[in-house]
Amino acid sequence: MPDSEPLLRVATLDDREAVDALMQASAAAHFPRFYEEPACSSAVRYIAVVDPMLLEDGTYYVLEADGEVVACGGWSRRGKLYTGSGDAEDDERLIDPATEPARVRAMFVRDDWSRRGLGRRILEECDAAARREGFRELALMSTLPGLPLYLSYGFVKHGDVDIPLPDGLAVPGATMTKPIEP
User: Fold this and answer.
1) Is-above-0.85 flag for pTM?
2) Residue 28: is it exposed, middle or buried by C-beta count within 10 angstroms (0-12/13-18/19+)?
3) Closest by CA position to 110, among listed 47, 46, 27, 34
């Protein structure tokens, strides 16, 4: 494994293939620890997919070590809460920072880089960027593998949910929010 400290940067459309590969590898490694088949395979297929809108908006980040993407995640100022949620009428709608929370989206870490603070670094950047745009709260839909990270970062779990996937299956998760400190 590389010894260099991963560098955080804004992801671009040119990163799409690398981000997709990281998401799928991360989900394939982490999801089986929490979900049984076939829900696990369905989640890898429908949740671990880059949303090009995040890349186009400049609100998605990658952490690179020695030229390899080892973690990714971001936030959104749009209505869509998570990839795989289907096509909702307001997915592309810009949300109002005065009345709605920014959405934390698509956090994934390569398995061999887990538990090193990479997710926290991305969350810190999401928090700061959303604050600069006037948001006062972050919201997310967490899969079970992400719960420990989000709880340790200060998110509050509001409820358990079954996250529906396009093939009719669902995976357990949770709705969460966190105030953005001024």
Assistant:
1) yes
2) middle
3) 27
Token reading at 59: 């609100």
**pLDDT for 74-131, tens place per residue?**
999 998 776 644 455 666 789 999 999 999 999 999 999 999 999 999 999 999 999 9
Residue 83: predicted pLDDT: 60
**Taking the alpha carbons of 163, 165, 167, 171 in that order, is the dihedral positive or negative?**
negative
- How many alpha carbons fall within 13 Å on the CB side of residue 172? 10
Q: Measure the CA–CA gap between 130 and 179, rounded to whole angstroms.
A: 11
What is the DSSP-derived secondary structure letter of residue 72?
E
Spell out the residues 6+ positions from residue 163 whose beta carbon is closer than 8 angstroms to its own: 47, 82, 84, 141, 143, 170, 171, 172, 173
